[in-house]
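dude i think i finally got it to work??
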Amino acid sequence: MSQRTLHSLFKPTSVAIIGASNTEKRAGNVLMKNLLSSGFSGPIMPVTPKYRAVMGVLAYPNIEALPIKPDLAVICTRACRVPAIVETLAQFGCKVAIIMAAGMAQEFNEDGVSLLDLAMQNAKRYGMRILGPNSLGMLLPPLGLNASLAHASALPGKIAFVSQSAAICTTVLDWANNKGIGFSSFISLGDATDINFDELLDYLGRDSRTSAIMLYIDSVNEKRHFLSAARAASRNKPILVIKSGRSAEGARAAKLHTGGVGGNDAVYEAAFRRAGMLRVNDLIELFAAVESLAHSNPLQGERLGIISNGGGPAVLAVDELIMRGGKLAELSDDTIAKLEAVLPNTWSRQNPIDIIGDANASRYAKALTILMDSNELDAILVLHSPSALGESVEIADALISVIHAHPKKNRLNILTNWSGEDSAYQARKRFTKGGISTYRTPEGAVGAFMHMVEYRRNQKLLQEVPQSIPDNIPTDSHTARKLLQAAQAKGKSVLETHEASPILRAYGLNTIDTWFVKDADEAVAIANEAGYPLALKVQSPNILHKSDVHGVMLNLTSAEDIRHAASAITQRVHQANPEAIIEGMIVQKMALTAGAQEIRVAVISDPVFGPAICLGEGGSEWDPTNDAAVALPPLNMALARYMVIQALKTHKLKDRHLPLGLDMNALCVMLTQISHIIIDCPEIASLDLNPVLAAGENITLLDVNIRLHDANADSSSRMAIMPYPKELEEFAELKNGLKVMLRPILPEDEPKHLAFDNSLSDEDRYKRYFGVRSKMTHEEMAVLTQIDYAREMAFIATAKGPDGDDITLGAVRASIDPDNTEAEFAMAVRGDHQGIGLGKLLLEKLIKYYQANDTPVLTGFTMFENRNMASLAKSLGFKVTFDMEEHLIKMHMDLKPPTDK
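look at this
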């Protein structure tokens, strides 16, 4: 990956068209037309041996004849010619090429190597980047660049659109042009063999011309890069996603379309949510989202006010708002009184405000002004239905004037719905031209508003400070891994409840007393010692769900019951599956289920995103896509709570309000500990807890199935999100004898990190932040503590305070660019702990970390006044230079030793 090479993609100063043509309908002809008509100011250089000129532009017979190195080349030839063209372009010095040809992965040379692999090998050898193949091309309206096969140009705007589907590109473009909506960039990824979503998200997330990003995704290849880039970009601007393949059949079609790996749709949904993105389900929602993003202000709150000239549309809007979890604004007596003065006596006197069907432009304008003047709303939806007594265009013009003249125009969001077709078309056109969101239906308008609300909620939830797991909950990874590796050494691939119990107990998870027996006599002996009632279950490697073959009998109260049950179970299993091997029986104590609720928890292995945790209700016919809320590990208590809320909200989990039913804290502890098991124990391929008995604070795992990876399987990159690197924790001793813990920062550290930041003296804060600054907000602290370990690192030093609680004494942090070419650090130490070696320990730890991370360069800046920081850096091997113009000291260290020549 290289953000630097993307500069030539997004800011090309010259373009070469390989395979340019004067023949109508040929790709090289369409490309030339689009480039010449879009207003691009740089050289456009057609390359073809067939013509002296293409569309009046001097042509060059081959790439070597070009007068300059093109920043961007568009290859419009047949697939068989592409690998050689790519090699020549790369040798010539071209940095980026767009490949239009399709089917390159299915065509092979005489050595059996695909044309796609050949082209990529040639490009990588010389550091050239590829967009495509099978790409429609790209449009950069701010540059007047249309290097695409699209049927129309795009208008300039502030939305970036990236799609794996060319057909979706042209559909969105056609619609946006009709609505007068523009784009900062419009990119067709095609098969995304090289340049992919993650690099584009990194670039667009930093692009000042882009205020929102929209993606159409068939599949994701680089899970960790994708999520890291999406998480970083979504902190700054909204990202909306439409993902194909929600059904199994659709997923297969998507896989054929782009050749990507098919993944579970529910896991994709969880990944999007975890990254702070917002998913839309269809093109109608996508268009509504584009409309709202093109004209919206950052949402300050969720209170919606509704003005309408008819009761029916207003009720439809309210229904949609409430059903989607929105909030209807409450009007104060003062606002109602002001509305009384301008509206007829028959108006609704509440929100929604029905200003009567014969409402004219003046009445609409006065009502809107009163609502905009109040502080009781965050957004206003104005509805209009066709009326012989009200001129829709005049009303639209009056509202546009009110909105543009109002001092809150950049803080409030105004949405409009002019229902109808012929009678409403001109009014909707006026709103679009005036930069005001407009929709064809009340439900569409409310849906667009709720997209903004959900994005705002997602960001707030992802910034929530998690509570810590109770201290009495064990996390013994050493014991768990020892047991799992012993099972692997014995050739086991599946662990049942009796074998899994000690592994789960190492993480504080309780299973019901369980024994494995070979026959009925052993079962009776166990029963006589353990006591009744008991359950008896078949143990067979060929049977995943015991209840499917009636292999379970409950509430056995005597030795006779056990013998009869063992015989009956054996007969039923052999009838259902004659080939099944019965290894023995499982004996379990009967759980006290009165007042408790049965749920199901599983960990599946998704082919795209790796381990995913699923929560729902029990049952053998269980499909995580439809029957469970899904989340990606690592989970903390806040993320686990979010998962439970999602499960309840979507009815995947039902709170049956039983006397000893669901306890939120207990569920969150269980889910967080399961997350820890999956992170700590790469030996586990999947985990099924079915059922789990939730009885208030007590949660018991009744039936457990753990499937193991092969002992030689590579599990180094299985996690989509890099978990907390516990292995980096270490203790150290300062010059004064104080013992400190040096470790990466955690989201749970936010309150103590805020206290640490507030403890810094005014002078230290001035040096740390290069000026005077106020106290950190929660949002700022969330950014500092909820870090992406794949992209940044922050080490803190903690010690026990007088009350036994940990106190943060110092912190050093650095972030790397997406290319991992340079990390920039900053550091602060409490004033009462300076001069005793703490800063040196922290900086040394950071240096070692980035050396191990293969980061070439570590840099930092400090103020002239902070000579102590400069002296420390110099003592550790940094090259220290002074920037007299900026009044800064620069610290630079090459982390990689020079190679011997």
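The first strand starts at residue 15 and ends at 18.
im so relieved honestly
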